[in-house]
Design brief:
The structure is a single chain. The protein is an alpha/beta fold. It has one domain: Rossmann fold, CATH 3.40.50. It has a 7-stranded mixed beta sheet, sandwiched between helices. The longest helix has 17 residues.
Length: 250
């Protein structure tokens, strides 16, 4: 991501509906997979560290992470996470084989700096046999929009493409589901509008990440809570993101 995007993420991660909702979904998944205070958990591409902070404070003291950018490091220091993180690429994770009970990576695989098959192989390598990998990626290449340029996102996945990536390793796919289906018409419409009205010199240098009116932010967040309560029972057929959970069998 560009430097401004790290700053914007840090300022908004605690309150913005999308960050809060994704964090709630992450914690739900970790708990369902049996993560506890003794679980070794890796945040692969931790950004400014709010997810890692939440997991390490509320779920597993043995959580660590890394991010590729030096721009993330001041924010990780501010969150007092420096002993838990290092600067590294998901393409070459500087950690031993079969170290972690659970590895998660949110919104990273789709970035320009990432070699997707190599990155997934690295996630696989550092996961223990019997452990799990959790991925959240952006859905549908046709939704690629100007917002993605400053965050270096160059690809979005459909379900079969994500399965194809996961199947480069012999794991068991426990779940693949879309996220944000209720909000999908609004979010997709907004992205397509921005795509059609921005081109060339008009292409924005910043993402759309900025504060929303509190009432609108709360409506979006409460909508995600409705979807969240359904996730354990329903695999959503469409949405702006995809969630996959993979088990590395013994």
């Amino acid at each position: 991501m560009e430097k401004r995007e790290y700053e914007a993420s840090f300022q908004l991660e605690a309150s913005y509906w999308w960050f809060r909702g994704q964090r709630d979904i992450l914690v739900d998944c970790l708990q369902r997979l049996g993560s506890n205070s003794s679980s070794r958990i890796l945040d692969a591409g931790c950004g400014t560290g709010k997810n890692l902070e939440t997991v390490s404070n509320g779920l597993s003291f043995l959580s660590v992470g890394f991010d590729i950018s030096e721009w993330a490091m001041p924010y990780l220091r501010e969150r007092q996470l420096t002993r838990r993180v290092c600067q590294a690429s998901i393409n070459e994770i500087p950690l031993p084989d079969e170290t972690f009970d659970l590895v998660y990576s949110l919104g990273v695989i789709e970035c320009a700096e990432v070699q997707e098959e190599k990155a997934f192989a690295e996630l696989w390598r550092v996961t223990k046999p019997g452990g799990h990998i959790l991925l959240i990626v952006s859905a549908y290449q046709w939704l690629l929009a100007p917002h993605d340029r400053p965050i270096h996102a160059i690809r979005r996945y459909n379900r079969s493409q994500l399965k194809q990536l996961i199947n480069t390793k012999p794991g068991k796919i426990l779940s693949i589901t879309h996220l944000y289906p209720i909000l999908f018409p609004w979010l997709a419409g907004y992205r397509l509008f921005k795509r059609w009205t921005s081109s060339g010199e008009d292409m924005p240098q910043e993402s759309d990440l900025r504060p929303l009116p509190n009432w609108l932010n709360q409506i979006f967040y409460q909508t995600v809570q409705i979807e969240r309560r359904m996730l354990n029972k329903v695999h959503f057929p469409f949405g702006t993101s995809l969630l996959a959970i993979v088990k590395k069998e013994k």
